[in-house]
Amino acid sequence: MRLLFKILALPFVMVTGLLYLVCKFLVLISGAVLGILSGIIFLASLVLFFTVGLWAGLSWMVIAFLISPYGLPMLAAGLTGMIGSVNCALRDFIFG
């Protein structure tokens, strides 16, 4: 019975392994691109803060934080780590 579960878990290991590699690549690339973009948006929000008003500058600062490497890309990295841990657990079940 345990051998049957190992055979059934093998496709999940392959799919989660491939999904983990794709997500890891996307997180690295998006972190670099969005880091540069968030710096530009932050500078623009400073200009808006002093020229237009408090709420316009503050709202763009929030957007700059969300796309910075500490915002949504960090959430994506955490979810990618969860996929990697599921993959390791399945791999340990099959080969361990």
Structure description:
The protein has 96 residues and is mainly alpha-helical. The chain is built from three helices and no strands. It has one domain (16-90).
Write the layout of secondary structure elements.
Blueprint: H1 2-51, H2 54-67, H3 72-95
Per DSSP E runs of 2 or more residues, the count of β-strands stands at 0
CA radius of gyration? 20 Å
Question: End-to-end distance, in Å?
Answer: 16 Å
Mean pLDDT: 89
Low-confidence stretches: none
Spell the H/E element sequence.
Answer: HHH
Shape annotation: rod-shaped
Question: Helical amount among residues, as a percent range?
Answer: over 70%
Multimeric status of the protein: single chain
> Approximately how much beta-strand content do the residues carry?
under 5%
Structural class: mainly alpha
Mind summarizing the main beta sheet? Answer: none
H/I helix tally:
3
Observed structural traits:
rod-shaped, mainly alpha, single chain, 0% strand, 3 helices, 96 residues
